[in-house]
Design goal:
Layout (H helix, E strand, L loop, with lengths): L9 H6 L13 E6 L8 H12 L5 E7 L15 E8 L12 H20 L3 H11 L15 H14 L5 H20 L7 E4 L3 H14 L3 E5 L3 H11 L21 H18 L2 E4 L4 H7 L7 E3 L22 E5 L8 H14 L4 E5 L6 H13 L6 E3 L5 H4 L5 E4 L8 H8 L4 E4 L4 H6 L12 E4 L4 H13 L1 H18 L2 H16 L3
Parallel strand pairs: 1-2, 1-4, 2-3, 4-5, 5-6, 6-7, 8-9, 8-11, 9-10, 11-12, 12-13
Helix pairs in contact: 3-4, 3-5, 4-7, 6-7, 7-9, 8-9, 11-12, 11-16, 14-17
Amino acid sequence: MTLPGSRLPLVLRRWLQVPVVTVVDAVDVCLICEGTYPYVAGGVSSWVHELIKSLPELHFHLLALLPPKQKLQTRYELPDNVTGITHVFLAPPKGEMGRISDKKMERVLHAVEEALYRFQTEGGVEPLNTLLTLLKPYRQRLHPAWLVNSQRGWDMLLRLYDRLLPGGPFLDFFWTWRYLAGNLLTLLWCDLPRAKMYHAVSTGHAGLLLARAHLEHGRPVIVCEHGIYTNERRIEITMADWLYEDPHAGYRLDVGTGDCRKLWIDAFQSYSKACYQACEQIITIYGGNQDFQRADGADPAKMRVIPNGIDWRRYENLPSDKGQRPPTIALIGRVVPIKDIKGFIQACALLRQSIPNVRALIMGPTDEDASYFEECQNLIHHFRLTEMITFTGRVSLSEYLGKIDVNVLTSISEGQPLVILEAAAAGVPTVATDVGACREMIEGMPDENPPLGPAGAVTRVSNPAETARELVRLLTQPLWWQQCSQAARQRVRTSYDQETLTQTYRALYTDLCARS
């Protein structure tokens, strides 16, 4: 959904692929989402959707940061209090550069170069504000491509190569810097909606844009992290097969060994630092995340925990066909590496050795990482599990929770997965890896009074054997399953009620929107 009224030059609107929305000041909250709501389904997107619906008296505008080929097909029916969406596509800048004298370009680029270097290596709002100040006079006259595609931009890249990756493979640096600088310029150049306050649901690119909103519009900003963005990017960067190790010297063009990982990690840490410094409050959904936030530069005085909640009444009376079908487990999540779907498949292979008739469902979108989905399918064929495991795609949980016995989560990283709470509300125990808030949701907080007991089991990350062992226990010991089911229902009712979340955010938004 886009609205008319962009004040940007035609070339920039074409670069961003869709009209950019100009929003009136009457909008209460601008929510900044990177790669999630409303075009990608998942736990964070569901959280955003429920939050907006629960506050109908407030007007929200969505600022969606998307990959360049993202289809603009919403996965959610937008609530009536969503006034519009601004789309910003992250991609290296292309297009006509505009006109500027060589002498002026050289002067500006030298100043920009130092600010870019400081922001890449130090982070924080000071070098970000310097960049914004330097670039502001050129936003309406020039395309950001002039900073990366011009001869002067090339000269700047060579100097930054010597400063940021001395001795590393030049080709790797070229493409890494082009991506990092290109996305940074996209976010510094794009139109920024006006609102009474801004709320990002992660750091990263969304957090960078949040910091810019605070610097340019002077309005209060907050971030609420579910997972820790920098940690998740570290995992992805470490696993990436297109990054190399042990740099070789020189301006070499062959794809040899090298290492650009530090450039990527430093960039995301710099974004987080700028976001944290700009924020009025730095929120997370469970206390374990706060150690990571402090390590990335968060001020403890601004930090706050607001746990997730759900409307558990939607799931408490779902019909169940337990006992009328084979034992059934389900992984409810996106088919992407960070969910370790392959680890789940390996656990299924082990589980079948003990329970031959067990069935397994993988319930979530399969189109976010086509190559990983294909690898998962090949692994299923390798273990001869095609009759055991079914990919359902995205489904309505209300239609499926009564058809499964155990919820499984094998993720490498998580925040506070809503699916554990939704399963718990239906009395379905969970076996989950020890990531994010999974342990406290399954075993309870240390101060839980009275102690309710486990609502399933917690296993080590990337340990299919442990996952399979705990699944066998739940599926073959009815009394143990019943104890876990009862604990799950009671814990979600007493500790994770959606209404508590709603009232907390209502008070926070009301206070910040009222700031003059």
